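Module 6 notes. Inverse folding takes a fixed backbone as the condition and produces residue identities as the prediction. Think of it as a translation problem where the source language is geometry and the target language is the twenty amino acids. Below is one complete input and output pair. Work through it position by position during the lab.
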């Protein structure tokens, strides 16, 4: 009975050699000047976020009369801002708890769908020979230059009226209502993300050792088994890198969610509600700071938890051979 375990071991050794080259690249960049520049950029990038956090836990009168840096000379803090903006009963308080759930419901599928489809497509374009493969890859690559705004109206028309050719309905209108509109947002984000995702993952998968794939086929492994047992474990850094990009994009998106999900309480994400608060309650700084920091918490957790995979994915894709 054949097995692909030896093949995986050989492939792991070759990938480790590639990661060794990545380590040498990191050492070349690890100079004192580069370190100093990185520290300065990190501080400049972190200070506004730290100030936002401090402001979000200060009382209303302190926020409106003094700067956040005065907190250290007169420390006063409260969690009332978060309580009010998350669970307040008045329409002007924020009520962000339900919108937070909506953002999760939009973002998680909008990340998983393009990851799954792009990984399968990238593997097929890299390691399965079929007629027109190169032209198909070029077409997918070219789709990256199409501005998102140009596709919004045709896609919205597709959802509302379907596809009709010569009086024949090829695809009916979706005719979704309420929480069903989440499906429209998932579809839109998946379509917009696929060109870049396929391009990124294809470049990574195509760099896997050819001997590894040939050895797996000799052992009797089929394409599904090769993809599941060999390719997926090796491209985890690339999947994490794209997953972070996609998560941040979808979580912070306002335009796509507002158009395809609407601004109702059932489907609107955090960004829609925060935009409303900024427009109607622009003088309530204690609510805006707390709401803004709530919207930042999940992206920060995702990035910090996947940071090591993110760096490995970028470095592994930058060194070939």
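Target side of the pair, the amino acids:
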């Amino acid at each position: 009975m054949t097995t692909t375990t030896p093949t995986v071991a050989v492939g792991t050794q070759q990938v480790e050699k590639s990661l060794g080259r990545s380590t040498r690249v990191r050492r070349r960049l690890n100079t004192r000047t580069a370190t100093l520049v990185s520290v300065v950029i990190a501080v400049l990038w972190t200070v506004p976020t730290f100030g936002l956090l401090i402001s979000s836990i200060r009382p209303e009168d302190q926020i409106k009369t003094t700067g956040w840096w005065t907190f250290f000379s007169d420390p006063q803090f409260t969690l009332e801002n978060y309580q009010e903006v998350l669970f307040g009963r008045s329409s002007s308080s924020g009520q962000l708890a339900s919108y937070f759930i909506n953002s999760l419901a939009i973002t998680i599928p909008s990340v998983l769908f393009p990851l799954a489809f792009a990984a399968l497509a990238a593997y097929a374009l890299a390691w399965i020979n079929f007629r027109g493969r190169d032209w198909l890859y070029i077409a997918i690559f070219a789709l990256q230059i199409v501005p998102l705004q140009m596709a919004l109206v045709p896609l919205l028309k597709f959802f509302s009226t379907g596809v009709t050719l010569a009086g024949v309905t090829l695809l009916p209108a979706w005719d979704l209502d309420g929480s069903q509109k989440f499906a429209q947002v998932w579809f839109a984000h998946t379509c917009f993300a696929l060109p870049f995702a396929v391009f990124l993952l294809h470049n990574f998968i195509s760099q896997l050792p050819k001997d590894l794939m040939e050895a797996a086929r000799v052992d009797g492994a089929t394409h599904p088994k090769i993809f599941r047992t060999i390719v997926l474990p090796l491209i985890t850094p690339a999947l994490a890198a794209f997953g972070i990009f996609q998560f941040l994009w979808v979580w912070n998106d306002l335009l796509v969610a507002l158009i395809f999900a609407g601004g109702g309480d059932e489907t609107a994400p955090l960004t829609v509600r925060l935009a409303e608060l900024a427009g109607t309650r622009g003088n309530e700084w204690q609510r805006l700071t707390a709401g803004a920091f709530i919207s930042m918490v999940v992206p920060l957790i995702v990035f910090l938890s996947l940071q090591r995979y993110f760096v490995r994915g970028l470095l592994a894709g930058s060194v070939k051979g």
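Reference fact for the lab report: Residues 317-321 have pLDDT under 50 and may be disordered.
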